[in-house]
């Protein structure tokens, strides 16, 4: 049988290039700029920085927050409820802007935080370590020149529903400086006895994924064939990952899983902007 032109083209093609999925976790102490750039560029899966806070510091912070009021994400949007300290931009976004209550709640959370933590502010300690690695300004993200709250404390029990976080898709044009990459940062200040792993997939959201949407999350069938990382956090460790990649937390049943968390945006003018 005479080969068709199409057969001929396919048969002449040889695979000579091996494509590396580039989705490893890098452990580094101290944090370094190169790792942050690789994470932002998508050629690294996660950065793990041991001991960003000391185990004693973690225990102390949990104790200091004991008497502090926690709220939940808007329960119409996220169910079952997630306990957290401090306001999330996510909850206040309406009709293309932040609802005005955001600013009162942000300043109130900052006051409560200062009162609870006193002179040794763990947020400042974490930001100092990030700023030391990053050769450029590191500051709170702003909206209309006003600083957003950062440094939320969140208690996650885990949920096999995956989600992604990408402020430019969810709230386009709201921030004064548009992030070109969005990283998530969590420092683990209390860990459960079981579960609680952070699972990150090398896969961003696509519009067709919405056929598999389950409430605020998406079905794991979407990522069945994708490379992924399963990270078991250590106390005091800081983990950075690209929150535009789908991720979920393995459910835990015993003990509290608390993180001091914020997003880190990388801007085209070499800033890191942080917010919750
Ligand atoms: O708590 C974690 O390990 C990650 C939580 C999360 O969904 C995020 O930081 O975007
Ligand atoms: Fe997330």
The succession of helices and strands, N to C, reads: HEHEHEEHEEHHEEEEEHEEEEEEEEE
Taking the sheet with the most strands, its summary is: 10 strands, mixed
Uncertain stretches of 5 or more adjacent residues:
none
Return the structural class: alpha+beta
Mean pLDDT over the full residue set: 93
Number of domains: 1
What's the shape? globular
* The CATH C-level class name: Mainly Beta
Fraction in helix: 10-25%
Task: Explain what you see.
The chain has 276 residues and is an alpha+beta fold. The protein is built from seven helices and 20 strands. Strand 8 and strand 9 (146-147) form a beta hairpin. It is globular and about 80 Å long. The relative contact order is 0.21. Bound molecules: 2-oxoglutaric acid and fe (ii) ion. 2-oxoglutaric acid (AKG) binds next to strand 12, strand 18 and strand 19. This is Prolyl 4-hydroxylase alpha subunit Fe(2+) 2OG dioxygenase domain-containing protein. It holds the Pfam family WelO5.
SSE blueprint:
Layout (H helix, E strand, L loop, with lengths): L4 H7 L13 E3 L5 H9 L4 E4 L5 H11 L5 E2 L10 E3 L3 H4 E2 L2 E2 L2 H17 L4 H12 L4 E3 L1 E2 L2 E2 L4 E4 L3 E5 L3 H4 L8 E12 L7 E7 L8 E2 L2 E2 L9 E4 L6 E5 L2 E5 L8 E10 L4 E4 L1
Parallel strand pairs: 1-2, 7-20
Antiparallel strand pairs: 2-17, 3-4, 4-10, 5-6, 8-9, 10-19, 11-18, 12-17, 12-19, 13-16, 13-18, 14-15, 19-20
The site of fe (ii) ion has 5 residues, from loops.
Outline:
InterPro entries: WelO5-like. It comes from Streptomyces aurantiacus. By secondary structure, the protein is an alpha+beta fold.
């Amino acid at each position: 049988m005479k080969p068709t032109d199409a057969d001929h083209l396919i048969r002449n093609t040889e695979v000579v290039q091996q494509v590396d999925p580039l989705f490893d976790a890098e452990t580094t102490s101290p944090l370094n700029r190169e790792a942050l750039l690789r994470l932002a560029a998508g050629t690294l899966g996660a950065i793990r920085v041991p001991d960003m806070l000391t185990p004693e510091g973690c225990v102390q912070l949990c104790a200091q927050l004991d008497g502090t009021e926690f709220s939940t994400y808007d329960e119409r949007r996220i169910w079952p409820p997630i306990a957290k300290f401090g306001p999330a931009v996510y909850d206040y976004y309406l009709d293309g802007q932040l609802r005005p209550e955001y600013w009162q709640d942000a300043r109130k959370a900052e006051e409560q935080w200062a009162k609870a933590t006193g002179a040794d502010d763990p947020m400042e300690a974490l930001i100092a370590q990030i700023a030391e690695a990053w050769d450029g300004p590191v500051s709170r993200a702003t909206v209309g020149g006003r600083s957003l709250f950062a440094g939320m404390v969140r208690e996650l029990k885990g949920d096999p529903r995956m989600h992604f976080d990408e402020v430019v898709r969810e709230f386009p044009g709201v921030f004064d400086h548009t992030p070109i990459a969005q990283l998530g940062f969590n420092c683990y200040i209390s860990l459960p006895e079981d579960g609680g792993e952070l699972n990150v997939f090398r896969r961003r959201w696509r519009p067709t994924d919405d056929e598999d949407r389950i409430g605020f999350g998406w079905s794991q069938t979407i990522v069945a064939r994708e490379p992924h990382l399963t990270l078991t956090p250590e106390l005091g460790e800081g983990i950075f990952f690209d929150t535009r990649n789908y991720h979920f937390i393995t459910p835990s049943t015993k003990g509290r899983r608390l993180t001091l968390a914020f997003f880190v945006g990388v801007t085209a003018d070499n800033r890191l902007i942080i917010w919750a």
